[in-house]
């Protein structure tokens, strides 16, 4: 004879291994919710001890954040996103957002959020970004040096950069390496533009 762990009733255990702890299935389902079996384990992520009170006792991480840091979780997430973005439902949904103009509004809000800024700051400290950034800067310097003619006044060019107001960029009216036209790096070819106007202009000649 045994006592049920939930209702304290006496029952006979007719099982082969004599492992029964509850008198029936109702007490078993209620008892596992109120009185779960606890096992101590070590987290594979942070290696701290935690109590596994789950039904199947298959937990390997103490928190969701420890599991999300693993490479296994990232690979699963990337595979799922690649498959999901190829589905016609997702493609139609994005087309509707572009037609309504809500996608551009959402992107502007996301660019001003702290989450986006945090990811940018973290990415700009990596070697992948720093190498490409240095290469781009070196190419830009070489383009400027090659575009300076012999008759150019270097003092005027320096004063143009020094007199640039805050919040503005120094841009070339005729781009140094345009698709159809290429200009010189001269004081007469320099102008002041806001960052938004400079990004819109890009490598084009606006008349």
Low-pLDDT stretches: none
Secondary-structure element string: EEHEEHHHHHHHEEH
Query: Could you tell me the mean pLDDT?
Result: 86
Major sheet details: 2 strands, antiparallel
How many whole angstroms does the radius of gyration measure? 33 Å
Q: Quickly give the structural class.
A: mainly alpha
Ends apart, CA distance between termini: 97 Å
Helix fraction, binned, reads 40-55%
Strand content: 5-15%
Q: In what order do the strands lie side by side in the largest sheet?
A: 1-2
Shape: elongated
Q: Would you report the number of β strands?
A: 6
Tally the helices: what do you get? 9
In words, what does this structure look like?
- The protein has 207 residues and is mainly α.
- Among the domains are: 67 residues, no CATH class; 75 residues, no CATH class.
- It is built from nine helices and six strands, in the order ββαββαααααααββα.
- The N and C termini lie far apart (97 Å).
Give short descriptive properties of this protein.
two-stranded antiparallel ribbon; 9 helices; 207 residues; mainly alpha; 6 strands
Describe the secondary structure blueprint for this structure.
Layout: E1 2-3, E2 10-11, H1 25-34, E3 39-42, E4 49-52, H2 64-68, H3 71-85, H4 88-100, H5 102-111, H6 114-123, H7 127-146, H8 154-162, E5 169-172, E6 190-193, H9 195-201
Antiparallel strand pairs: 1-2, 3-4, 5-6
